Structure to design on (388 residues):
């Protein structure tokens, strides 16, 4: 029993960190004297070793984005991501599955999930191949479909900051939530802004469906209440300031889908007033060349929305690295495909990840979804507007 308690509480700092300052970490669970003073109770720090760092001046040409990796499933996909030779990886939520199914603010399930990921050798190789920026979704927040009413969100944030080794002075340490922004690239005309939104910490409760399981109304229905929020006042103000910063390409990361309609799962569609607010803010701040990246759905697809900003707004969803919807669709015999009024691709239900290739000379961005073997299954090219 004691061994089970210790294993459930232990957590290794994951390989590398989530910022421009970071080195990678070797996954060696330490003894009690390795517990750092700032560690959440029961969290054990791993032994550090030098490795790749994110160079804030580097011109980015290849970026990988991915989501939804179950720590107990096959981890070999990380070697495929490393083989893509990216300049940067974006891990956009459900980075582990550690839902708290019982009343325990020490989050033993979440700590154990992180520890399991920290022991993954393929993940270690991926972290050594490229720097990684992270944000959470619900299962690494600690509660399936959790929002601002999750009672242990402060404890979960402290664990996130420790696990991903956010340094002292990182703005994310000084405020509630784990949202962040980075502008990467020193060369004029080739700067990429990464904006990672926190769609959990402040989010209002969603309106539950009146017909659970019905197609298009599976769990939730849109709530017209204008007081409901996805981001909260402080994050909205921060986002406005970030969108006003100069950049040649903007990647706006939302763990849940923004543009997608036609389903009854989580997404910005469930808070339509706030989704309209997001569209309006992008338009009002003249935030050109913005591409939305999302995860969560255990499937991949591409979307385009006309008429909400002064250019076609594009979104790519990539999910999952090792827990794809094909598994339970095969078990259940499911063949239904959700309506997609803004979808410009088929839905892809097997293991996948996203690859963004930037051709700065042609000012073109190819956004592709690759399968587990690294083959392109869908892609779209976005042409960048020239700087004003």
């Amino acid at each position: 029993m004691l061994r089970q308690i210790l294993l459930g509480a232990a957590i290794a700092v994951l390989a590398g960190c989530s910022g421009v300052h970071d080195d990678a970490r070797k996954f060696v669970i330490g003894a009690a004297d390795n517990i750092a003073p700032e560690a959440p109770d029961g969290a054990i720090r791993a032994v550090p070793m030098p490795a790749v760092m994110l160079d804030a001046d580097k011109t980015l040409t290849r970026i990988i984005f991915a989501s939804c990796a179950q720590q107990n499933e096959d981890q070999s996909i990380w070697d495929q991501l490393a083989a893509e030779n990216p300049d940067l990886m974006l891990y956009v939520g459900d980075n582990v599955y550690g839902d708290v199914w019982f009343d325990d603010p020490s989050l033993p399930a979440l700590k154990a999930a992180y520890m399991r990921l920290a022991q993954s050798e393929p993940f270690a190789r991926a972290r050594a191949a490229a720097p990684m920026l992270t944000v959470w979704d619900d299962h690494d927040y600690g509660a399936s479909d959790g929002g601002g009413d999750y009672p242990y969100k402060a404890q979960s944030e402290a664990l996130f900051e420790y696990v991903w080794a956010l340094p002292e002075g990182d703005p994310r340490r000084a405020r509630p939530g784990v949202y962040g922004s980075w502008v990467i690239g020193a060369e004029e005309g080739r700067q990429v802004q990464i904006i990672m939104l926190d769609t959990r910490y402040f989010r209002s409760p969603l309106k539950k469906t009146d017909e659970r399981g019905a197609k298009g109304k599976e769990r939730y229905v849109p709530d017209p209440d204008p007081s409901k929020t996805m981001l909260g006042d402080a994050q909205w103000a921060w986002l406005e300031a970030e969108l006003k910063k100069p950049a040649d390409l903007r990647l706006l990361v939302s763990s849940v889908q923004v543009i997608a309609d036609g389903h009854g799962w989580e997404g910005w569609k469930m808070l339509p007033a706030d989704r309209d607010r997001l569209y309006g803010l992008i338009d009002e701040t003249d935030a050109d060349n913005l591409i939305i990246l999302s995860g969560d759905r255990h499937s991949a697809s591409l979307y385009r929305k006309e008429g909400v900003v002064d250019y076609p707004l594009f979104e790519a969803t990539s999910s999952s690295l090792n827990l794809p919807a094909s598994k339970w669709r095969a078990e259940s015999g499911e063949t239904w495909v959700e309506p997609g009024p803004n979808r410009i691709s088929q839905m892809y239900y097997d293991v996948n990840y996203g690859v963004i290739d930037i051709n700065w000379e042609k000012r073109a961005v190819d956004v592709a979804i690759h399968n587990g073997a690294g083959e392109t299954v869908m892609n779209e090219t976005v042409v960048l507007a020239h700087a004003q």
Notes: Confidence is low (pLDDT under 50) at residues 1-13, 15-37, 44-51. The chain is about 20% helix and 20% strand.
